[in-house]
Amino acid sequence: MTETKVWVDTPFKLISSSKSGAELGKEPKGAQKLGCEMTIVHNNILCGLNAGSPKDKLEFANFAYAWAMVLKEHHCVEEERVFPLINSLAVPGLMDGDVAEHQEFHDGFEVYLEYTDKLRGGNEELDGDKLTSIIDSFGPVLREHLEHEIDTPLALEKYSDKTDEFPMTIILHDKTFDGGMWQHFPPILWRKDWWRFSGCDFTSQPQKLPFA
């Protein structure tokens, strides 16, 4: 019998970049490239959600809470900065549907955030069944949203004449500034006891999970 290795690509299936028209050996451009890059970010989120609940409870609680804060910040940046910019450059209200989708999993996600915060603070014991139940309350809707939202940047292709300024929000970080001392911005907290629950190492290569 072939042994099935556990990794972070289940239970919430990762999104294929082919959705954005990506092909090996062919570099995507314009809206397609933006869609592919969003796919990578969203798959990072799914990998974090797919990480199981191992025996090392405190370290995992810190990992899970850090993941939740990444997702929270991701959506705050979208709603407060990225989406308003796209709306102003393309069509007013274009991104409103994506903001509405954020609200569909908001309550369950907030329960997850609160629970993992209690775990890392030692105010509650890790209960695998409870954690799974919380994830199931918002995970499927989040997964659907993360794939559906990729359609939005793909739709920007028709507004390419209006969105030429958008990359300016991404490309203004000078890695040579101050002699290159900020080239690794944003900073990474080197908490290896937390990050070992991630599906990949610091060279972005898949790694064996501690609970597999």
Automatic annotation (TrEMBL):
Ranges of residues in domain Hemerythrin-like: 57-149
Highest taxon, organism lineage: Eukaryota
Pfam families registered for this protein in UniProt: Hemerythrin
Protein name per Swiss-Prot or TrEMBL: Hemerythrin-like domain-containing protein
Organism of this sequence: Dactylonectria estremocensis
